[in-house]
Amino acid sequence: MIISHSQHLLSLFPTTLRLTKPSLASPSSSLSFPSLSSSSISMSSSSSFSLPTAISPLSDPAPLRIAIVGFGNYGQFLAETLASEGHTLLAHSRSDHSAAATRLGVSFFTTDLHDLCERHPDVVLLCTSILSTETVLKTLPFQRLRRNTLFVDVLSVKDFAKTLLLQYVPDDFDILCTHPMFGPQSASSNRGSWRGLRFVYDKVRIRGDRSRCDKFLAVFERRGCEMVEMSCADHDRYAAGSQFITHTVGRVLETLKLQSTPINTRGYEALLGLAENTRGDSFDLYYGLFVYNSNSLEMLERMDLAFESLRKELFGRLHGVVRKQLFEGETHQSHIALDVTMSKDVSDFKYEYNADDSSRLLKIGIVGFGNFGQFLAKTMVKQGHTVLAYSRTDYTDAAAELGVSYYSDLDDLFEEHPEVILLCTSILSTEKVLKSLPFQRLKRSTLFVDVLSVKEFPRNAFLQTLPQDFDILCTHPMFGPESGKNGWNGLSFVFDKVRIGMDDRRRSRCDSFLDIFAREGCSMVEMSCAEHDWHAAGSQFITHTVGRVLEKLGLESTPVDTKGYETLLKLVENTAGDSFDLYYGLFLYNPNAMEQLERFGFAFESLKKQLFGRLHGLLHKQLFGNDKETQIMLETTGLSTFR
Fold this sequence. Notes:
The protein has 643 residues and is of the alpha/beta class. Helix content is 46%, strand content 12%.
Protein backbone atom coordinates (compact mmCIF):
# COMPACT_ATOMS: atom_id res chain seq x y z
CA MET A 1 0.00 0.00 0.00
CA ILE A 2 1.06 3.61 -0.57
CA ILE A 3 0.79 4.35 3.15
CA SER A 4 3.88 2.21 3.70
CA HIS A 5 5.61 4.22 0.98
CA SER A 6 4.78 7.48 2.78
CA GLN A 7 5.88 6.05 6.10
CA HIS A 8 9.17 5.05 4.48
CA LEU A 9 9.66 8.57 3.16
CA LEU A 10 8.88 10.01 6.58
CA SER A 11 11.44 7.73 8.17
CA LEU A 12 14.03 9.09 5.73
CA PHE A 13 13.38 12.70 6.76
CA PRO A 14 12.49 12.50 10.47
CA THR A 15 13.71 15.92 11.54
CA THR A 16 12.66 18.00 8.57
CA LEU A 17 9.22 16.77 7.57
CA ARG A 18 7.59 15.86 10.86
CA LEU A 19 5.80 18.68 12.63
CA THR A 20 7.16 19.70 16.00
CA LYS A 21 4.19 21.74 17.26
CA PRO A 22 2.30 19.74 19.92
CA SER A 23 -1.07 20.50 18.28
CA LEU A 24 -0.01 19.02 14.96
CA ALA A 25 1.90 15.99 16.18
CA SER A 26 1.80 12.73 14.36
CA PRO A 27 -1.20 10.55 15.12
CA SER A 28 -0.59 8.05 17.87
CA SER A 29 -1.12 4.36 17.50
CA SER A 30 -4.53 4.76 19.08
CA LEU A 31 -5.50 7.10 16.22
CA SER A 32 -6.46 9.99 18.45
CA PHE A 33 -6.07 12.83 15.99
CA PRO A 34 -5.28 16.30 17.34
CA SER A 35 -7.17 19.45 16.49
CA LEU A 36 -6.06 22.09 14.03
CA SER A 37 -7.71 24.97 15.86
CA SER A 38 -5.91 28.29 15.84
CA SER A 39 -5.86 28.32 19.61
CA SER A 40 -4.06 25.00 19.74
CA ILE A 41 -0.92 26.22 17.97
CA SER A 42 1.56 27.89 20.25
CA MET A 43 3.25 30.73 18.38
CA SER A 44 6.28 32.75 19.29
CA SER A 45 6.22 36.52 19.05
CA SER A 46 8.18 36.33 15.84
CA SER A 47 5.54 34.21 14.19
CA SER A 48 2.40 35.93 15.41
CA PHE A 49 -0.51 36.89 13.20
CA SER A 50 -3.20 39.52 13.42
CA LEU A 51 -6.73 39.42 12.06
CA PRO A 52 -7.78 41.72 10.56
CA THR A 53 -5.14 44.42 10.01
CA ALA A 54 -5.83 48.06 9.22
CA ILE A 55 -3.41 49.41 6.61
CA SER A 56 -1.74 52.73 7.45
CA PRO A 57 -3.42 55.83 5.97
CA LEU A 58 -1.87 56.78 2.63
CA SER A 59 -0.05 60.10 2.56
CA ASP A 60 0.79 59.77 -1.15
CA PRO A 61 -2.30 59.14 -3.33
CA ALA A 62 -0.23 58.75 -6.52
CA PRO A 63 -0.91 55.44 -8.35
CA LEU A 64 1.65 52.66 -8.43
CA ARG A 65 3.39 51.36 -11.52
CA ILE A 66 3.02 47.58 -11.22
CA ALA A 67 4.73 45.02 -13.46
CA ILE A 68 2.93 41.67 -13.54
CA VAL A 69 5.25 38.80 -14.43
CA GLY A 70 3.08 35.83 -15.39
CA PHE A 71 -0.03 37.13 -17.16
CA GLY A 72 -2.14 33.98 -17.26
CA ASN A 73 -5.62 33.64 -15.77
CA TYR A 74 -4.61 34.71 -12.27
CA GLY A 75 -2.43 37.62 -13.40
CA GLN A 76 -5.30 38.91 -15.55
CA PHE A 77 -7.74 38.38 -12.68
CA LEU A 78 -5.68 40.66 -10.39
CA ALA A 79 -4.88 43.12 -13.19
CA GLU A 80 -8.56 43.89 -13.75
CA THR A 81 -8.94 45.17 -10.18
CA LEU A 82 -5.54 46.89 -10.03
CA ALA A 83 -6.37 48.78 -13.25
CA SER A 84 -9.79 49.79 -11.92
CA GLU A 85 -8.01 51.30 -8.90
CA GLY A 86 -6.08 53.60 -11.26
CA HIS A 87 -2.67 51.93 -11.11
CA THR A 88 -0.43 51.75 -14.19
CA LEU A 89 0.10 48.16 -15.27
CA LEU A 90 2.82 46.49 -17.30
CA ALA A 91 2.88 42.76 -18.00
CA HIS A 92 5.06 39.97 -19.36
CA SER A 93 4.37 36.29 -19.92
CA ARG A 94 5.87 33.42 -21.91
CA SER A 95 2.61 33.17 -23.85
CA ASP A 96 1.26 36.03 -25.92
CA HIS A 97 -1.56 37.64 -23.92
CA SER A 98 -1.38 40.98 -25.74
CA ALA A 99 -5.08 40.89 -26.70
CA ALA A 100 -6.15 40.33 -23.09
CA ALA A 101 -3.72 43.06 -21.96
CA THR A 102 -5.17 45.55 -24.45
CA ARG A 103 -8.71 44.77 -23.24
CA LEU A 104 -7.64 45.44 -19.63
CA GLY A 105 -5.60 48.57 -20.43
CA VAL A 106 -2.27 46.88 -19.64
CA SER A 107 1.00 47.47 -21.53
CA PHE A 108 2.19 44.02 -22.60
CA PHE A 109 5.85 43.17 -23.26
CA THR A 110 5.97 40.08 -25.42
CA THR A 111 9.56 38.90 -25.49
CA ASP A 112 11.98 41.11 -23.61
CA LEU A 113 11.90 41.43 -19.82
CA HIS A 114 14.67 44.05 -20.08
CA ASP A 115 12.25 46.45 -21.79
CA LEU A 116 9.69 45.97 -19.02
CA CYS A 117 12.24 46.40 -16.19
CA GLU A 118 13.63 49.56 -17.79
CA ARG A 119 10.20 51.15 -17.30
CA HIS A 120 11.11 51.14 -13.57
CA PRO A 121 7.96 49.69 -12.00
CA ASP A 122 7.43 50.42 -8.30
CA VAL A 123 6.20 46.87 -7.78
CA VAL A 124 7.06 43.59 -9.49
CA LEU A 125 4.12 41.21 -8.93
CA LEU A 126 5.02 37.56 -9.54
CA CYS A 127 1.95 35.63 -10.75
CA THR A 128 3.92 32.60 -11.87
CA SER A 129 3.15 28.97 -11.03
CA ILE A 130 4.81 27.36 -8.02
CA LEU A 131 6.94 25.12 -10.24
CA SER A 132 8.19 27.90 -12.54
CA THR A 133 8.89 30.64 -9.97
CA GLU A 134 12.56 29.85 -9.47
CA THR A 135 13.27 29.70 -13.20
CA VAL A 136 11.56 33.07 -13.66
CA LEU A 137 13.52 34.67 -10.81
CA LYS A 138 16.77 33.46 -12.38
CA THR A 139 15.92 35.21 -15.67
CA LEU A 140 14.95 38.60 -14.24
CA PRO A 141 17.39 41.44 -15.12
CA PHE A 142 17.45 43.00 -11.64
CA GLN A 143 20.10 45.47 -12.80
CA ARG A 144 17.49 47.17 -15.01
CA LEU A 145 15.24 47.88 -12.03
CA ARG A 146 15.51 50.70 -9.54
CA ARG A 147 17.03 49.76 -6.24
CA ASN A 148 14.41 49.20 -3.49
CA THR A 149 11.81 47.94 -6.00
CA LEU A 150 9.09 46.03 -4.13
CA PHE A 151 8.78 42.34 -5.06
CA VAL A 152 5.47 40.62 -4.32
CA ASP A 153 4.44 37.00 -4.88
CA VAL A 154 0.96 35.42 -4.69
CA LEU A 155 1.89 31.75 -4.38
CA SER A 156 -0.19 29.26 -2.37
CA VAL A 157 2.90 28.22 -0.40
CA LYS A 158 4.84 30.87 1.45
CA ASP A 159 8.02 29.56 3.09
CA PHE A 160 9.23 28.35 -0.31
CA ALA A 161 8.48 31.72 -1.94
CA LYS A 162 10.14 33.63 0.91
CA THR A 163 13.29 31.48 0.68
CA LEU A 164 13.58 31.99 -3.08
CA LEU A 165 12.99 35.75 -2.92
CA LEU A 166 15.58 36.19 -0.18
CA GLN A 167 18.03 34.10 -2.21
CA TYR A 168 17.61 35.75 -5.64
CA VAL A 169 16.32 39.29 -5.05
CA PRO A 170 19.12 41.83 -4.27
CA ASP A 171 19.42 42.96 -0.65
CA ASP A 172 18.29 46.52 -1.38
CA PHE A 173 14.94 45.34 -2.83
CA ASP A 174 11.84 45.06 -0.64
CA ILE A 175 9.93 41.76 -0.31
CA LEU A 176 6.25 41.22 0.46
CA CYS A 177 4.94 37.63 0.47
CA THR A 178 1.18 37.40 -0.02
CA HIS A 179 -1.53 34.82 -0.61
CA PRO A 180 -4.95 35.97 -1.79
CA MET A 181 -7.10 33.07 -0.51
CA PHE A 182 -9.35 33.29 -3.56
CA GLY A 183 -9.29 33.22 -7.32
CA PRO A 184 -11.54 33.81 -10.35
CA GLN A 185 -13.83 30.90 -9.40
CA SER A 186 -14.33 31.70 -5.70
CA ALA A 187 -14.70 35.42 -6.42
CA SER A 188 -17.31 34.61 -9.05
CA SER A 189 -19.30 32.51 -6.56
CA ASN A 190 -19.04 35.54 -4.22
CA ARG A 191 -20.91 37.61 -6.83
CA GLY A 192 -17.66 38.99 -8.20
CA SER A 193 -16.77 40.62 -4.90
CA TRP A 194 -13.69 40.10 -2.75
CA ARG A 195 -15.57 41.20 0.36
CA GLY A 196 -14.97 38.85 3.27
CA LEU A 197 -12.34 36.82 1.37
CA ARG A 198 -9.00 36.44 3.14
CA PHE A 199 -5.76 38.06 2.02
CA VAL A 200 -2.68 36.78 3.90
CA TYR A 201 0.61 38.67 3.85
CA ASP A 202 4.05 38.82 5.47
CA LYS A 203 6.25 41.92 5.22
CA VAL A 204 9.43 39.90 4.85
CA ARG A 205 11.74 42.82 4.12
CA ILE A 206 10.38 46.35 3.99
CA ARG A 207 12.94 49.10 4.54
CA GLY A 208 12.69 52.88 4.58
CA ASP A 209 9.53 54.22 2.95
CA ARG A 210 6.64 51.84 3.72
CA SER A 211 4.00 53.80 1.80
CA ARG A 212 4.48 51.79 -1.39
CA CYS A 213 3.85 48.49 0.44
CA ASP A 214 0.84 49.96 2.26
CA LYS A 215 -0.52 51.35 -0.99
CA PHE A 216 -0.37 47.90 -2.60
CA LEU A 217 -2.08 46.23 0.38
CA ALA A 218 -4.72 48.96 0.46
CA VAL A 219 -6.02 47.72 -2.93
CA PHE A 220 -7.23 44.52 -1.27
CA GLU A 221 -8.44 46.22 1.91
CA ARG A 222 -10.58 48.67 -0.08
CA ARG A 223 -12.15 45.73 -1.89
CA GLY A 224 -13.32 44.35 1.45
CA CYS A 225 -10.76 41.58 1.89
CA GLU A 226 -10.16 40.25 5.38
CA MET A 227 -6.51 41.23 5.86
CA VAL A 228 -4.45 38.65 7.78
CA GLU A 229 -0.82 39.39 8.65
CA MET A 230 1.05 36.22 9.53
CA SER A 231 4.51 34.72 9.05
CA CYS A 232 5.16 32.51 6.04
CA ALA A 233 5.89 29.55 8.32
CA ASP A 234 2.57 29.91 10.16
CA HIS A 235 0.72 30.24 6.86
CA ASP A 236 2.14 26.95 5.62
CA ARG A 237 1.37 25.20 8.88
CA TYR A 238 -2.29 26.22 8.68
CA ALA A 239 -2.52 25.73 4.91
CA ALA A 240 -1.40 22.09 5.18
CA GLY A 241 -4.46 21.46 7.33
CA SER A 242 -6.90 23.48 5.24
CA GLN A 243 -5.85 24.18 1.66
CA PHE A 244 -3.98 20.93 1.02
CA ILE A 245 -6.68 18.77 2.62
CA THR A 246 -9.36 20.60 0.59
CA HIS A 247 -7.50 19.97 -2.67
CA THR A 248 -6.87 16.34 -1.69
CA VAL A 249 -10.56 15.66 -1.04
CA GLY A 250 -11.51 17.49 -4.24
CA ARG A 251 -9.11 15.41 -6.34
CA VAL A 252 -10.26 12.13 -4.80
CA LEU A 253 -13.87 13.07 -5.59
CA GLU A 254 -12.89 14.13 -9.10
CA THR A 255 -11.33 10.69 -9.66
CA LEU A 256 -14.63 9.09 -8.58
CA LYS A 257 -16.38 11.04 -11.38
CA LEU A 258 -19.29 11.91 -9.11
CA GLN A 259 -22.39 13.18 -10.87
CA SER A 260 -25.58 14.83 -9.77
CA THR A 261 -28.37 12.40 -8.91
CA PRO A 262 -32.14 12.83 -8.53
CA ILE A 263 -31.68 12.51 -4.75
CA ASN A 264 -28.83 14.93 -3.99
CA THR A 265 -28.43 16.06 -0.39
CA ARG A 266 -27.05 19.51 0.44
CA GLY A 267 -23.83 17.86 1.65
CA TYR A 268 -23.42 15.95 -1.62
CA GLU A 269 -24.05 19.10 -3.66
CA ALA A 270 -21.28 20.79 -1.66
CA LEU A 271 -18.91 17.94 -2.57
CA LEU A 272 -19.90 18.21 -6.24
CA GLY A 273 -19.05 21.92 -6.08
CA LEU A 274 -15.70 21.14 -4.47
CA ALA A 275 -14.85 18.60 -7.18
CA GLU A 276 -15.86 21.14 -9.86
CA ASN A 277 -13.60 23.82 -8.38
CA THR A 278 -10.69 21.38 -8.14
CA ARG A 279 -11.18 20.37 -11.76
CA GLY A 280 -10.32 23.94 -12.74
CA ASP A 281 -6.85 23.74 -11.14
CA SER A 282 -3.89 22.00 -12.71
CA PHE A 283 -2.27 18.99 -11.08
CA ASP A 284 0.92 21.09 -10.98
CA LEU A 285 -0.76 23.40 -8.46
CA TYR A 286 -1.72 20.48 -6.23
CA TYR A 287 1.72 18.90 -6.61
CA GLY A 288 3.27 22.24 -5.69
CA LEU A 289 1.16 22.41 -2.52
CA PHE A 290 2.40 18.94 -1.65
CA VAL A 291 6.10 19.27 -2.42
CA TYR A 292 6.71 22.90 -1.41
CA ASN A 293 4.88 22.82 1.92
CA SER A 294 6.89 20.75 4.37
CA ASN A 295 3.72 20.03 6.41
CA SER A 296 1.70 18.48 3.57
CA LEU A 297 3.23 14.99 3.66
CA GLU A 298 2.28 14.73 7.32
CA MET A 299 -1.31 15.72 6.54
CA LEU A 300 -1.51 13.20 3.69
CA GLU A 301 -0.35 10.42 6.01
CA ARG A 302 -2.85 11.46 8.69
CA MET A 303 -5.68 11.35 6.14
CA ASP A 304 -4.50 7.91 5.03
CA LEU A 305 -4.55 6.66 8.61
CA ALA A 306 -7.99 8.19 9.20
CA PHE A 307 -9.45 6.37 6.19
CA GLU A 308 -7.87 3.08 7.28
CA SER A 309 -9.25 3.58 10.79
CA LEU A 310 -12.76 4.12 9.39
CA ARG A 311 -12.50 0.98 7.26
CA LYS A 312 -11.40 -1.02 10.30
CA GLU A 313 -14.41 0.20 12.27
CA LEU A 314 -16.79 -0.81 9.50
CA PHE A 315 -15.22 -4.20 8.81
CA GLY A 316 -14.84 -4.91 12.53
CA ARG A 317 -18.56 -4.51 13.07
CA LEU A 318 -19.31 -6.47 9.91
CA HIS A 319 -17.15 -9.29 11.23
CA GLY A 320 -19.21 -9.29 14.41
CA VAL A 321 -22.45 -9.61 12.43
CA VAL A 322 -21.09 -12.56 10.45
CA ARG A 323 -19.96 -14.31 13.63
CA LYS A 324 -23.44 -13.95 15.12
CA GLN A 325 -24.93 -15.43 11.96
CA LEU A 326 -22.56 -18.38 11.98
CA PHE A 327 -22.41 -19.20 15.68
CA GLU A 328 -25.47 -17.69 17.34
CA GLY A 329 -28.10 -18.44 14.74
CA GLU A 330 -29.10 -14.81 14.13
CA THR A 331 -30.30 -14.07 10.64
CA HIS A 332 -29.91 -10.85 8.76
CA GLN A 333 -31.44 -10.01 5.45
CA SER A 334 -29.06 -10.68 2.61
CA HIS A 335 -28.93 -8.23 -0.24
CA ILE A 336 -28.10 -8.71 -3.86
CA ALA A 337 -27.18 -5.70 -5.97
CA LEU A 338 -29.80 -5.51 -8.68
CA ASP A 339 -29.11 -4.81 -12.31
CA VAL A 340 -31.01 -1.54 -12.47
CA THR A 341 -31.50 0.31 -15.73
CA MET A 342 -31.09 3.97 -14.77
CA SER A 343 -32.97 6.79 -16.40
CA LYS A 344 -30.68 9.39 -17.95
CA ASP A 345 -33.03 12.28 -17.24
CA VAL A 346 -33.42 13.43 -13.65
CA SER A 347 -36.86 14.82 -14.51
CA ASP A 348 -38.07 11.26 -15.16
CA PHE A 349 -38.14 10.75 -11.39
CA LYS A 350 -40.15 13.87 -10.56
CA TYR A 351 -43.69 13.32 -9.35
CA GLU A 352 -46.07 16.28 -9.21
CA TYR A 353 -48.81 16.62 -6.61
CA ASN A 354 -51.68 19.06 -6.69
CA ALA A 355 -51.97 19.99 -3.03
CA ASP A 356 -55.48 21.22 -2.27
CA ASP A 357 -57.88 21.41 0.64
CA SER A 358 -59.54 18.14 -0.37
CA SER A 359 -56.66 16.07 1.00
CA ARG A 360 -58.08 14.29 4.01
CA LEU A 361 -56.59 14.38 7.47
CA LEU A 362 -55.01 11.19 8.74
CA LYS A 363 -54.52 9.40 12.03
CA ILE A 364 -50.80 8.57 12.08
CA GLY A 365 -49.05 6.31 14.57
CA ILE A 366 -45.32 6.99 14.89
CA VAL A 367 -43.21 4.09 16.16
CA GLY A 368 -39.83 5.48 17.25
CA PHE A 369 -40.29 8.97 18.69
CA GLY A 370 -36.67 10.15 18.89
CA ASN A 371 -35.33 13.32 17.22
CA PHE A 372 -36.46 12.42 13.71
CA GLY A 373 -39.90 11.17 14.78
CA GLN A 374 -40.50 14.40 16.70
CA PHE A 375 -39.17 16.42 13.76
CA LEU A 376 -41.78 14.92 11.39
CA ALA A 377 -44.57 14.96 13.98
CA LYS A 378 -44.29 18.74 14.43
CA THR A 379 -45.22 19.39 10.79
CA MET A 380 -47.92 16.70 10.72
CA VAL A 381 -49.65 18.22 13.75
CA LYS A 382 -49.32 21.70 12.23
CA GLN A 383 -51.20 20.46 9.15
CA GLY A 384 -54.04 19.12 11.33
CA HIS A 385 -53.29 15.40 11.33
CA THR A 386 -53.87 13.33 14.49
CA VAL A 387 -50.55 11.93 15.67
CA LEU A 388 -50.01 9.09 18.15
CA ALA A 389 -46.54 7.97 19.22
CA TYR A 390 -44.64 5.14 20.91
CA SER A 391 -40.96 4.69 21.74
CA ARG A 392 -38.83 2.57 24.05
CA THR A 393 -37.76 5.77 25.80
CA ASP A 394 -40.38 7.85 27.61
CA TYR A 395 -41.08 10.97 25.51
CA THR A 396 -44.34 11.90 27.23
CA ASP A 397 -43.31 15.53 27.86
CA ALA A 398 -41.98 16.05 24.32
CA ALA A 399 -45.17 14.56 22.87
CA ALA A 400 -47.41 16.79 25.01
CA GLU A 401 -45.45 19.85 23.89
CA LEU A 402 -46.02 18.92 20.24
CA GLY A 403 -49.69 18.02 20.64
CA VAL A 404 -49.05 14.29 20.16
CA SER A 405 -50.79 11.50 22.13
CA TYR A 406 -48.05 9.36 23.68
CA TYR A 407 -48.47 5.63 24.47
CA SER A 408 -46.13 3.55 26.58
CA ASP A 409 -47.74 0.32 25.29
CA LEU A 410 -47.82 -0.60 21.58
CA ASP A 411 -50.99 -2.66 22.00
CA ASP A 412 -52.81 0.41 23.31
CA LEU A 413 -51.62 2.55 20.39
CA PHE A 414 -52.52 -0.07 17.76
CA GLU A 415 -56.01 -0.50 19.24
CA GLU A 416 -56.62 3.17 18.36
CA HIS A 417 -56.56 1.97 14.74
CA PRO A 418 -54.22 4.53 13.14
CA GLU A 419 -54.56 4.60 9.35
CA VAL A 420 -50.80 4.94 8.92
CA ILE A 421 -47.97 3.36 10.93
CA LEU A 422 -44.83 5.46 10.41
CA LEU A 423 -41.62 3.65 11.43
CA CYS A 424 -38.98 6.15 12.57
CA THR A 425 -36.60 3.54 14.00
CA SER A 426 -32.88 3.27 13.35
CA ILE A 427 -31.65 1.06 10.50
CA LEU A 428 -30.14 -1.46 12.89
CA SER A 429 -33.27 -1.85 15.05
CA THR A 430 -35.91 -1.94 12.28
CA GLU A 431 -36.00 -5.70 11.82
CA LYS A 432 -36.32 -6.33 15.55
CA VAL A 433 -39.06 -3.72 15.94
CA LEU A 434 -41.07 -5.15 13.03
CA LYS A 435 -41.04 -8.62 14.57
CA SER A 436 -42.39 -7.25 17.87
CA LEU A 437 -45.39 -5.36 16.44
CA PRO A 438 -48.89 -6.64 17.42
CA PHE A 439 -50.32 -6.56 13.86
CA GLN A 440 -53.53 -8.25 15.04
CA ARG A 441 -54.55 -5.04 16.84
CA LEU A 442 -54.58 -3.03 13.62
CA LYS A 443 -57.24 -2.75 10.97
CA ARG A 444 -56.57 -4.77 7.87
CA SER A 445 -55.11 -2.69 5.02
CA THR A 446 -53.25 -0.33 7.40
CA LEU A 447 -50.57 1.65 5.53
CA PHE A 448 -46.98 1.04 6.73
CA VAL A 449 -44.35 3.69 5.94
CA ASP A 450 -40.63 3.83 6.72
CA VAL A 451 -38.19 6.74 6.50
CA LEU A 452 -34.85 4.87 6.48
CA SER A 453 -31.79 6.09 4.56
CA VAL A 454 -31.59 2.73 2.77
CA LYS A 455 -34.57 1.36 0.88
CA GLU A 456 -34.07 -2.19 -0.37
CA PHE A 457 -33.61 -3.41 3.20
CA PRO A 458 -36.92 -2.07 4.64
CA ARG A 459 -38.76 -3.05 1.46
CA ASN A 460 -37.64 -6.66 1.85
CA ALA A 461 -38.32 -6.60 5.59
CA PHE A 462 -41.85 -5.23 5.06
CA LEU A 463 -42.68 -7.77 2.35
CA GLN A 464 -41.36 -10.59 4.51
CA THR A 465 -42.95 -9.56 7.84
CA LEU A 466 -46.18 -7.63 7.18
CA PRO A 467 -49.51 -9.39 6.54
CA GLN A 468 -50.46 -9.51 2.85
CA ASP A 469 -53.41 -7.12 3.21
CA PHE A 470 -51.30 -4.25 4.63
CA ASP A 471 -50.16 -1.47 2.29
CA ILE A 472 -46.45 -0.57 2.01
CA LEU A 473 -44.90 2.81 1.17
CA CYS A 474 -41.09 3.13 1.37
CA THR A 475 -39.86 6.72 1.71
CA HIS A 476 -36.69 8.66 2.38
CA PRO A 477 -36.88 12.34 3.34
CA MET A 478 -33.47 13.55 2.14
CA PHE A 479 -33.21 15.97 5.05
CA GLY A 480 -33.36 16.04 8.82
CA PRO A 481 -33.73 18.35 11.83
CA GLU A 482 -30.55 20.28 10.90
CA SER A 483 -30.95 20.65 7.12
CA GLY A 484 -34.73 21.07 7.39
CA LYS A 485 -34.83 23.47 10.34
CA ASN A 486 -35.71 26.43 8.11
CA GLY A 487 -38.40 24.61 6.13
CA TRP A 488 -38.58 21.77 3.64
CA ASN A 489 -39.03 23.80 0.46
CA GLY A 490 -36.89 22.39 -2.36
CA LEU A 491 -35.63 19.43 -0.29
CA SER A 492 -36.00 16.00 -1.89
CA PHE A 493 -38.49 13.40 -0.68
CA VAL A 494 -38.02 9.97 -2.29
CA PHE A 495 -40.76 7.34 -2.27
CA ASP A 496 -41.71 3.98 -3.73
CA LYS A 497 -45.32 2.70 -3.64
CA VAL A 498 -44.25 -0.88 -2.98
CA ARG A 499 -47.73 -2.26 -2.36
CA ILE A 500 -50.81 -0.03 -2.42
CA GLY A 501 -54.30 -1.54 -2.73
CA MET A 502 -56.28 -0.87 -5.90
CA ASP A 503 -59.37 0.73 -4.34
CA ASP A 504 -59.73 4.52 -4.30
CA ARG A 505 -59.74 4.79 -0.49
CA ARG A 506 -56.31 3.18 -0.12
CA ARG A 507 -54.81 5.18 -2.98
CA SER A 508 -56.25 8.38 -1.53
CA ARG A 509 -54.77 7.58 1.89
CA CYS A 510 -51.31 7.06 0.39
CA ASP A 511 -51.56 10.30 -1.60
CA SER A 512 -52.75 12.20 1.51
CA PHE A 513 -49.66 11.03 3.37
CA LEU A 514 -47.35 12.06 0.53
CA ASP A 515 -49.19 15.38 0.35
CA ILE A 516 -47.85 16.24 3.83
CA PHE A 517 -44.43 16.69 2.23
CA ALA A 518 -45.66 18.15 -1.07
CA ARG A 519 -47.50 20.91 0.83
CA GLU A 520 -44.23 21.91 2.50
CA GLY A 521 -42.57 22.38 -0.89
CA CYS A 522 -40.54 19.16 -1.02
CA SER A 523 -39.25 17.99 -4.37
CA MET A 524 -41.21 14.73 -4.71
CA VAL A 525 -39.12 12.00 -6.37
CA GLU A 526 -40.72 8.64 -7.17
CA MET A 527 -38.21 5.86 -7.82
CA SER A 528 -37.78 2.20 -6.99
CA CYS A 529 -35.96 1.19 -3.81
CA ALA A 530 -33.21 -0.41 -5.92
CA GLU A 531 -32.68 2.82 -7.88
CA HIS A 532 -32.58 4.82 -4.65
CA ASP A 533 -29.85 2.62 -3.16
CA TRP A 534 -27.81 2.74 -6.35
CA HIS A 535 -27.85 6.54 -6.36
CA ALA A 536 -27.47 6.85 -2.56
CA ALA A 537 -24.30 4.75 -2.49
CA GLY A 538 -22.69 7.27 -4.82
CA SER A 539 -23.97 10.34 -3.00
CA GLN A 540 -25.14 9.85 0.58
CA PHE A 541 -22.64 7.14 1.56
CA ILE A 542 -19.69 8.96 -0.04
CA THR A 543 -20.75 12.20 1.68
CA HIS A 544 -20.83 10.47 5.08
CA THR A 545 -17.50 8.74 4.35
CA VAL A 546 -15.72 12.01 3.55
CA GLY A 547 -17.27 13.66 6.61
CA ARG A 548 -16.19 10.86 8.95
CA VAL A 549 -12.63 10.70 7.57
CA LEU A 550 -12.26 14.45 8.09
CA GLU A 551 -13.84 14.23 11.53
CA LYS A 552 -11.03 11.88 12.58
CA LEU A 553 -8.50 14.56 11.59
CA GLY A 554 -10.00 16.97 14.12
CA LEU A 555 -10.16 19.78 11.56
CA GLU A 556 -11.14 23.20 12.86
CA SER A 557 -11.33 26.72 11.52
CA THR A 558 -8.00 28.49 10.90
CA PRO A 559 -7.12 32.12 10.15
CA VAL A 560 -6.56 31.15 6.48
CA ASP A 561 -9.76 29.22 5.69
CA THR A 562 -10.80 29.04 2.05
CA LYS A 563 -14.44 28.72 0.97
CA GLY A 564 -13.76 25.09 0.03
CA TYR A 565 -12.33 24.35 3.47
CA GLU A 566 -15.32 26.00 5.13
CA THR A 567 -17.50 23.63 3.09
CA LEU A 568 -15.59 20.66 4.52
CA LEU A 569 -15.88 22.01 8.07
CA LYS A 570 -19.66 22.31 7.62
CA LEU A 571 -19.77 18.75 6.30
CA VAL A 572 -17.86 17.51 9.36
CA GLU A 573 -20.23 19.41 11.64
CA ASN A 574 -23.27 17.79 10.01
CA THR A 575 -21.69 14.32 10.05
CA ALA A 576 -20.71 14.63 13.71
CA GLY A 577 -24.39 15.05 14.54
CA ASP A 578 -25.19 11.56 13.22
CA SER A 579 -24.46 8.36 15.11
CA PHE A 580 -21.97 5.83 13.82
CA ASP A 581 -24.89 3.38 13.75
CA LEU A 582 -26.46 5.44 10.95
CA TYR A 583 -23.25 5.35 8.90
CA TYR A 584 -22.77 1.64 9.61
CA GLY A 585 -26.37 1.03 8.56
CA LEU A 586 -25.77 2.85 5.27
CA PHE A 587 -22.78 0.58 4.71
CA LEU A 588 -24.31 -2.73 5.82
CA TYR A 589 -27.79 -2.41 4.32
CA ASN A 590 -26.98 -0.79 0.98
CA PRO A 591 -25.60 -3.49 -1.34
CA ASN A 592 -23.77 -0.82 -3.40
CA ALA A 593 -21.92 0.80 -0.47
CA MET A 594 -19.02 -1.68 -0.39
CA GLU A 595 -18.21 -0.94 -4.02
CA GLN A 596 -18.25 2.81 -3.33
CA LEU A 597 -15.97 2.39 -0.31
CA GLU A 598 -13.49 0.45 -2.45
CA ARG A 599 -13.69 3.05 -5.24
CA PHE A 600 -12.96 5.80 -2.70
CA GLY A 601 -9.95 3.82 -1.45
CA PHE A 602 -8.66 3.20 -4.99
CA ALA A 603 -9.07 6.89 -5.87
CA PHE A 604 -7.06 7.93 -2.81
CA GLU A 605 -4.35 5.37 -3.59
CA SER A 606 -4.20 6.57 -7.21
CA LEU A 607 -3.73 10.18 -6.09
CA LYS A 608 -0.90 9.20 -3.74
CA LYS A 609 0.78 7.23 -6.53
CA GLN A 610 0.75 10.34 -8.71
CA LEU A 611 2.29 12.46 -5.95
CA PHE A 612 4.94 9.96 -4.88
CA GLY A 613 5.72 9.09 -8.49
CA ARG A 614 6.65 12.69 -9.23
CA LEU A 615 8.48 12.99 -5.90
CA HIS A 616 10.50 9.89 -6.81
CA GLY A 617 11.50 11.56 -10.07
CA LEU A 618 12.60 14.64 -8.16
CA LEU A 619 14.80 12.62 -5.81
CA HIS A 620 16.21 10.63 -8.73
CA LYS A 621 17.28 13.89 -10.39
CA GLN A 622 18.92 15.03 -7.17
CA LEU A 623 20.82 11.76 -6.69
CA PHE A 624 21.91 11.11 -10.25
CA GLY A 625 21.39 14.27 -12.23
CA ASN A 626 23.01 16.78 -9.86
CA ASP A 627 20.27 19.21 -10.83
CA LYS A 628 20.98 22.51 -9.04
CA GLU A 629 17.37 23.78 -9.28
CA THR A 630 16.09 20.56 -7.74
CA GLN A 631 18.66 20.81 -4.96
CA ILE A 632 17.60 24.34 -4.08
CA MET A 633 13.95 23.25 -4.01
CA LEU A 634 14.77 20.32 -1.75
CA GLU A 635 16.68 22.60 0.63
CA THR A 636 13.73 24.99 0.90
CA THR A 637 11.37 22.14 1.79
CA GLY A 638 13.78 20.33 4.12
CA LEU A 639 14.16 17.28 1.87
CA SER A 640 17.87 17.75 1.27
CA THR A 641 18.74 15.64 4.31
CA PHE A 642 18.11 12.63 2.09
CA ARG A 643 21.51 13.14 0.50
